[in-house]
Each structure stands twice: as structure tokens, then as C-alpha cells.
């Protein structure tokens, strides 16, 4: 685990920033491949990746500052800009990144839901790689395991400053691994007939479920904010419910459209048989 890969003079090249940048680049590359395979909008993917990547970083930081740790940053305003210390909420990154993508798509008259379905696997792949950055930086860490198993972080990390040399649950590692599984599941789902908007909805549901469960093992921002749920669990619960409702709505609309098309085909067949 190396926070600093090397130094250029006194300037550190941090593993966190390098891996985070790599996650955006690779996610954009995969989105380009999927869009070109689909045959639509691949020429817009690089621009969307740049705008959404920048918006996602800003959103992830602001979400963490104002929703998760405002009690600290309200007294340390200058540290809001210290993104290299960690403190990036992926849920804020998704909201802002997707928001930037929607604005771009509307401006270029691109079907937003169809595009979201295409790039959904790429988004979760980027998240999976991004969790490697968290591991190397020693943030998004787990709570103490209470035993002699777990990750012991270096003294320079936030995890060590919080819990010392106690073994911690590998929460960020497991989340990254689950994200890779979700990536595969989304690719499999897209190979079968489905309604427009369902692939993206499924991505939101699967990630929300994973994040909700893993929050029980997290050691940062573990203070309950709603009933006994943390901020991330509350957000995940709301996101899952909304995505599930939309998933069902898309399926109902899709089924109705199929019935309408079948009905028109049957009517045309009857007319043709009667000689009309």
C-alpha cells in the first residue's frame, strides 16, 4: 500500500490521483466500446467522459463535505479543496456525473435513457477501479474487526489516524469486487431483451444494495442520521426504491408497447386475408 508513488522535486505523485484518473479514462474507453458496438453516439462518448468525470469529482467531494462530514469541514474550510486526503462520496459523483451527462445529451438531442443503458456497465467499472484508489490512499476504510484478521494501514493514512494499528474490515476492497460482479451482471442483462431505462435502473439497484450492506462494516462516517441508518445507507435506500419503481414502470410500458404492436400486426393480417 503506497500513498506516494514517487516525487518530482517536492511534489508527490499520489497513487490516489493516478488510479482515480485511470478509472475515468478506462470507464470512458469501455463506454466508447459499448456505444460503438450499439451503433449509436460513440462519437460523443469522449466528450461526455471528460465533462462527467470532472463533474463527478466535484460532486463526490461536495457530497462528502456537506452530507457526510460538514461538522469537521465547517471548522476547516480551507481543507475542502484537499481532495488528495480522501473524502470523495461516490454517490455524489454519480449524481453530478450523470447530471452532466444528461445536460450534454439534451443539448445534442441524444436519447438520455438509451444512452444511460449503454454506459451503465462502464460507470460501475469506473467505480470498481476507483475503490483501488481508496485502498491505496487508506480511506473509505472499514471498522475494526475485533480479531487478528483485517487490513492494518500505514501510519500516514486516515484509517491509521482513526483506529491506529487495529485490523480493519476490507470494506473498500469488497465493494470494488462487488462492483466488478455488477459490471458482469449488467453486460449479461443487456444481452437479453429489456425495456429502455431498465439497465441503468438495475445498475442503481444493485449498487445501492451492495453499498447499503457494506455500510455495516464501514469505519468512516458511521454515525446514524435516519433511524439507525448512516447517510450512505439512507441515500442507498431512497435510490433503490426510486430505481425499482422506475424499473417496473419501464417494464409495464414495454409490455404495453409490445401488445400494441402485436395488435396492429394481427389487424393487418386480418385485413389482408379479407382482401382490403
TrEMBL record:
<feature type="transmembrane region" description="Helical">
    <location>
        <begin position="199"/>
        <end position="217"/>
    </location>
</feature>
<keyword id="KW-0812">Transmembrane</keyword>
<feature type="transmembrane region" description="Helical">
    <location>
        <begin position="45"/>
        <end position="63"/>
    </location>
</feature>
<dbReference type="InterPro" id="IPR001640">
    <property type="entry name" value="Lgt"/>
</dbReference>
<keyword id="KW-1133">Transmembrane helix</keyword>
<keyword id="KW-1003">Cell membrane</keyword>
<feature type="transmembrane region" description="Helical">
    <location>
        <begin position="83"/>
        <end position="105"/>
    </location>
</feature>
<dbReference type="Pfam" id="PF01790">
    <property type="entry name" value="LGT"/>
</dbReference>
<comment type="function">
    <text>Catalyzes the transfer of the diacylglyceryl group from phosphatidylglycerol to the sulfhydryl group of the N-terminal cysteine of a prolipoprotein, the first step in the formation of mature lipoproteins.</text>
</comment>
<protein>
    <recommendedName>
        <fullName>Phosphatidylglycerol--prolipoprotein diacylglyceryl transferase</fullName>
        <ecNumber>2.5.1.145</ecNumber>
    </recommendedName>
</protein>
<feature type="transmembrane region" description="Helical">
    <location>
        <begin position="237"/>
        <end position="254"/>
    </location>
</feature>
<keyword id="KW-0808">Transferase</keyword>
<feature type="binding site">
    <location>
        <position position="131"/>
    </location>
    <ligand>
        <name>a 1,2-diacyl-sn-glycero-3-phospho-(1'-sn-glycerol)</name>
    </ligand>
</feature>
<feature type="transmembrane region" description="Helical">
    <location>
        <begin position="13"/>
        <end position="33"/>
    </location>
</feature>
<feature type="transmembrane region" description="Helical">
    <location>
        <begin position="112"/>
        <end position="130"/>
    </location>
</feature>
<comment type="pathway">
    <text>Protein modification; lipoprotein biosynthesis (diacylglyceryl transfer).</text>
</comment>
<keyword id="KW-0472">Membrane</keyword>
<dbReference type="GO" id="GO:0016740">
    <property type="term" value="F:transferase activity"/>
</dbReference>
<feature type="transmembrane region" description="Helical">
    <location>
        <begin position="173"/>
        <end position="192"/>
    </location>
</feature>
<comment type="similarity">
    <text>Belongs to the Lgt family.</text>
</comment>
